[in-house]
Write a sequence for this structure.
């Protein structure tokens, strides 16, 4: 469902050309659980941003569910993001002045979903992520693990088919990190494609498919045999 | 995205940045309040003057000596100007559709009676004066229609003059000395109160011919002509001019209709009201700069949030609307507060000084609020556009 062919992404820094991604050819199927590892600056985040349609390739073609999405305009890309893609970030990126419930509600608000249905869906997610009694709390009143759970709830409330997590445990202690990983893994069991960038070898090795990047290239792509 | 959500999200920013939002809104509120307060006073004054003017009726024409564009053109820089005489006044009775003609000479003089003395306004008038100016005689009669050149020394007292000089005794038939000459009291006017700050009861009325002598004047100060309401004022003016020009040999006098007088007053007041509105507009503009500043700061501070919204699937246009809506709501709320403050202040002023008339002009209230909203729009456009044009990846990396 995700197909990259000969994708390059170059940045111009001053008059220096930085090749963040070089000739990426990659196919990911529905419901896959993929980790991306590699040294800092190897292009992991850039790849994730391209998959999530936050960025466009400098060259090459990206097809999502068979549709060439590189040629879509801003409005169409926004719609694809809203309907098919969920983001989870290292620094949570919660809106500080909104309650946990309202942070989770944001994608529904942007999508113009009716108030009744919104309340219902938010309440259900708060319940299943163990955040029920934190609904009216603001991010600063939540622990790191709770914040990331709010962020995951927000990423999944639109039932995306692809979940992109950029070092989701990078800002958490290892115990809380494990919890978050388990939460994300549960989602893959429901058929969501999970693509997770991580520095943590243990976490990375849990994925069924492990991609390694160096210097903008994919240098390793192995699957767990079992 | 629904409007109610836009409102809800914006309110959360107002709550978090309450001090900053309050001060920015205040800038707009002060501008709007100033416009409302000042135009209320201006409009009230306007209405007040109009009412005062039309108390005398609206079908009055005034003739003054001298040719000039405005009122009271005076003696001849441009050759000889003949004075307006009692004979001129009498001649105007020939004008068709005329109801009343009143010769008028005014001045101040010492009035003495019963051992008391008072300095009052002396009005030399004709017998038609009360009817021409819609004034009523309370007791006795007004001045009689004496033959030309044979005016007797009769006086009609204003309400206050009568009270001051005669207290409760009947003044009719009594005598007063005005400027050294003896006058017999034949009437007392009904109380009229003040008009444009002038006490209409502190006046004595004597025949215009006597007043000319007393003040040693060659001519009348003005002649007032009342025409029938059904008559065409332009035709009346034409007739007046043809009679007077025949008598004077040329047009060395000025004819002013009530309409012209009102027009002049209206345009002067209009300019004042407009100037006041312009001052308010400038303070609104300053408020607009405040909004521009605050929104520019907000966009910079909330860069990460903008990136997040885009990642969650917000369209550029939605980000634009969020920030533009915030600017507009800020200025609209400030404007609304200003409307309330301005109206309250106008009412309070009226309560404190009942003589100062205030009238809240709906036109300026609507204009001020829409200007506030437009200013919010204009001030919000640049920051909101910047927010919507941000590269989402870059935006997410800040913080
Ligand atoms: N917006 C950008 N402008 C310039 N250079 C960039 C930009 N984004 C990424 N890069 C560069 O591209 C390379 C890959 O970055 P990134 O994808 O963030 O790496 P990783 O996430 O693997 O650490 C780095 O050299 C980085 O400096
Ligand atoms: Mg990275």
């Amino acid at each position: 469902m995700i197909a990259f062919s000969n994708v390059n992404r170059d940045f111009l820094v001053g008059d220096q050309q930085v090749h963040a991604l070089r000739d990426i050819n990659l196919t990911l199927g529905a419901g896959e659980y993929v980790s991306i590892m590699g040294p800092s600056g190897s292009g992991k985040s850039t790849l994730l941003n391209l998959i999530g349609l936050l960025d466009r390739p400098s060259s090459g073609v990206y097809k999502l569910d068979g549709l060439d999405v590189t040629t879509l305009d801003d409005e169409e890309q926004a719609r694809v993001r809203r309907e098919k893609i969920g983001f989870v970030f290292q620094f949570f990126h919660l809106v500080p002045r909104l309650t946990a419930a309202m942070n989770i509600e944001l994608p529904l608000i942007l999508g113009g979903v009716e108030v009744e249905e919104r309340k219902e869906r938010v309440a259900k997610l708060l319940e299943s992520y163990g955040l029920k009694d934190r609904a009216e709390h603001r991010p600063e009143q939540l622990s790191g693990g709770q914040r990331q759970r709010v962020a995951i709830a927000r990423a999944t409330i639109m039932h995306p088919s692809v979940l992109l997590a950029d070092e989701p445990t990078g800002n958490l202690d290892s115990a809380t990190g494990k919890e978050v990983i388990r939460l994300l893994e549960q989602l893959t069991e429901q058929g969501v494609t999970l693509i997770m960038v991580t520095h943590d070898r243990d976490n990375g090795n849990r994925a069924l498919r492990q991609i390694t990047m160096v210097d903008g290239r994919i240098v390793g792509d192995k699957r767990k045999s079992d | 995205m629904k409007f109610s959500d836009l409102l809800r999200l914006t309110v959360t920013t107002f709550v978090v940045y309450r001090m900053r939002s309050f001060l920015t809104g205040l800038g707009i509120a002060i501008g709007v309040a100033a416009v409302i307060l000042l135009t209320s006073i201006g409009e009230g004054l306007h209405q007040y003057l109009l009412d005062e003017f039309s108390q005398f009726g609206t079908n009055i024409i005034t003739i003054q000596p001298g040719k000039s564009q405005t009122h009271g053109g005076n003696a001849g820089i441009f050759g000889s100007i003949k004075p307006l005489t009692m004979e001129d006044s009498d001649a105007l009775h020939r004008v068709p559709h005329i109801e009343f003609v009143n010769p008028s000479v005014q001045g101040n003089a010492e009035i003495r009676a019963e051992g008391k003395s008072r300095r009052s306004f002396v009005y030399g008038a004709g017998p038609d004066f009360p009817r021409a100016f819609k004034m009523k005689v309370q007791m006795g009669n007004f001045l009689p229609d004496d033959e030309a050149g044979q005016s007797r020394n009769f006086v009609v007292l204003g309400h206050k003059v009568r009270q001051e000089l005669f207290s409760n005794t009947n003044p009719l038939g009594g005598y007063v000395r005005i400027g050294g000459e003896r006058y017999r009291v034949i009437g007392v006017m009904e109380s009229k109160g003040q008009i444009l700050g002038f006490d209409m009861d502190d006046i004595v009325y004597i025949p215009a011919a006597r007043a000319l002598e007393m003040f040693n004047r060659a001519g009348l100060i003005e002649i007032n002509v009342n025409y029938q309401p059904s008559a065409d004022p332009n035709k009346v003016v034409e007739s007046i001019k043809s009679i007077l020009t025949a008598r004077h040999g040329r047009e060395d006098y000025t004819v002013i209709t009530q309409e012209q007088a009102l027009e002049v007053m209206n345009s002067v007041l209009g300019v004042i009201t407009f100037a006041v509105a312009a001052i308010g507009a400038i303070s609104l503009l300053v408020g607009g700069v405040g909004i521009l500043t605050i929104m520019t700061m907000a966009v910079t501070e909330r860069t990460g949030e903008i990136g997040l919204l885009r990642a969650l699937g917000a369209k550029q246009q939605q980000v634009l609307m969020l920030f533009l809506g915030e600017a507009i709501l800020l200025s609209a709320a400030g404007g609304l507060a200003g409307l309330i403050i301005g109206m309250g202040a106008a009412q309070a002023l009226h309560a404190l000084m009942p003589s100062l008339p205030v009238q809240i002009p709906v036109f300026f209230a609507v204009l001020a609020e829409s200007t506030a909203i437009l200013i919010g729009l204009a001030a919000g456009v640049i920051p909101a556009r910047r927010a919507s044009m941000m590269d989402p990846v870059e935006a997410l990396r800040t913080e």
Notes: Residues 82-251 of chain B form one domain. The mean pLDDT of chain B is 88.
